[in-house]
Sequence to fold (451 residues):
Amino acid sequence: MKHLDPTLQPVFEEILARNPGEAEFHQATRELLDSLGPVVARHPEYTDAAIIRRVCEPERQIIFRVPWVDDAGQVQLNRGFRVEFNSALGPYKGGLRFHPSVYLGIIKFLGFEQIFKNALTGMPIGGGKGGSDFDPKGRSDAEVMRFCQSFMTELYRHIGEYTDVPAGDIGVGGREIGYLFGQYKRITNRYESGVLTGKGIGWGGSLVRTEATGYGTVFFAGEILKARGSSFDGKTVVVSGSGNVATYAAEKAAALGATVIACSDSSGYVVDEKGLDLDLLKEVKQVRRERLSSYAEARESARFVATTTGGAVWDVPCDIALPCATQNELDGDHALALVRNGCTVVAEGANMPCTPEAVKVFAEAGVAFAPGKAANAGGVATSALEMQQNASRDSWSFAHTEARLEEIMVGIHARCLETADTYGAPGNYVAGANIAGFIQVADAMLALGVI
Ligand code: NDP
Fold:
């Protein structure tokens, strides 16, 4: 690990001491601090006002009990979280994750990333994140509904369209947002559409929100390719995951002329040299909620490789890799395999899917690497567009909303490159994203005083 700037080392040590046992949060803060050396050198006012120390401390952390009754009549117990990290730019904004691995450290890492991602979009939104260790897998719709209602029965008092606006993430899609919004509406007796994003199209949702994170990631990767005189056309692409982000990243990459030959879930991966059949993938994962092996069973050109074999989707040779599943899913060895097989662009659709070792491998091999806080910002940007539509009681067409999304992603790409140039790291998207996002938040925090 490279040495931190001497001004930043004590800040990182303080983070480690104040947040014991939160490995993902340590990783995310360290990654930001790694980029900030040239910033503190140029802006002593940030250090004087303890901006970096303050931005690493959540404004508020809420942890609550979520009891609910399963279909067998048994009482089940989960833990709910909402970390309201930073509201210098606007109301806290960030998704809810329902996954058994969720604990405070994961929610804090996600909330921290969200601050700078949201700043990069240029929209007036702060950063937050929440979720629960509830596992929706294998649960009936009725069980998911009762869980969501219990979760919202506590969460409702902390959120609001001017306070904190949650959305989806892993394990939280349209079904869950519906149950959560229904309970919020019932408790408050207000049809406050702007309190949650990712709503259904018929009741306050925005066209393109479902597709936005995946599409946005591909728009960002497309800009990287363009800067290198290339495009998606004729390229092979591997995505990881087969949920919301992965599916729509695959859809847009295919629409731009690429062949998407592999995707994964936690049980394994499928390789389909003919290109993924996305209708079948959606049917298997979103409608039937089955494992990925069902895709291979239904399609002759596909084969399924189970996680238990020890292989990974990154073993499949490709030109472009889009990790879209979860944090730390692509390590140094996976990165070496990708480089060996000729991959030249990696764009993170998920949050922090590449380990620091993997990022180092990409940098050394000259692979263009786009960090999630820039590449997957299209999801939250379109959530902000959904809030705009809710506020004006309007709904925009698919084409208009997609054009706005693309414009935002092109803008973030340009801003990352310009900032990287200005701070002596040309072509480095990690430095560009971290510095541009941080400066926007830091300047707002300076203006708002010590709060
Ligand atoms: P989904 O729940 O729709 O899909 C998640 C996918 O990742 C599934 O295929 C799941 O497999 C797989 N996955 C999850 N955990 C693991 C694990 N521990 N090991 C292997 N595979 C795993 O989530 P999203 O697509 O919404 O989110 C994916 C990533 O994108 C997350 O990092 C999220 O934070 C990030 N993101 C999402 C945004 C959004 O708008 N939804 C916005 C910005 C970022 P399985 O089905 O087996 O669980």
